[in-house]
Structure formats: C-alpha cells, structure tokens
Amino acid sequence: MTTDDHSADHGATSGRWDPMALKAGASVALVFAVPFSIAARWAADSQDDSALAIWLSLGAVVGFVLGAGCAAWVQRLNLPYSHALATATGTYLAAQAVFILFRLLRGADVSWFAAFFNLSVVVGAGVLGGALGQRLRSKGFRPTGLG
C-alpha cells in the first residue's frame, strides 16, 4: 500500500496539515515533555545539585521527540518533517507561553535567552522526531485505527 493509498483509506485531509496527526503528536508531547519541563524548572530553582535538572531537561527533550515522531508517523499527507516541527514548536511555544505568564504574574524574572535557546533544542527534537516517524513509515509500519 502506498502512502497515497493510505491517505485515501483514512479520510480526507485538506491543505498542508493533518489536524488529527498534529493533535496526536501534541498530546504525546504535552503528556511527556511538559511534566519533565516543570520538574526541571523546579529542580533548577530549588536545589544546589543541577544534575537532576539536566536529567529532567533531557527527559523533556525526549518527550518532544516522541510527540514530533508521533505526528510524523500518523500524518497522512506524506509531510513528516512539517508535522513533526509544527508539533514540537507549537507545543513548546504554547507551554512556554503559560510558564512565562505565570512567572510574570508572580513577579519573577524571565530568561528570554533561555526560552529561545530551548526553542532551538526543541526544533532539533522535532527534526529527530520527524526522522524517526518517517523511518517507521518507510519500513512499512503504519498506525492503525485512524480515521
């Protein structure tokens, strides 16, 4: 079954984006990456040992890779990297906007450099997730139960 056949089998998607794939990837990213991000921020703010914060931050990056990979894998438009990058950056920006808003409301400092640096790491996670999702599809692994 080709990718075009697969697209036809699971319903119509219009335009450049597969909303179901973006939602699936964002859900995975939010479930895995955001809790690790919150824990990493807490660890960095409250402990002298930064090793825990580093490990938790790496866990958040893995969460973004998983979410991006999920979106790349389940998308039906043969655009794995577009869906992976949109998922990773979109979920990061949404979560980061909430985190920044809370910090501003509490009167805490916001490290804008860190937010933009972390965005570059998340973009890298999106590319890696896109590669993993594309690899799954090219090896013939297709998601089931879609549409």
TrEMBL record:
The chain crosses the membrane at residues 21-40, 52-73, 85-105, 111-132. Keywords: Membrane, Transmembrane, Transmembrane helix. It comes from the Bacteria. This is Uncharacterized protein. It comes from Ilumatobacter fluminis.
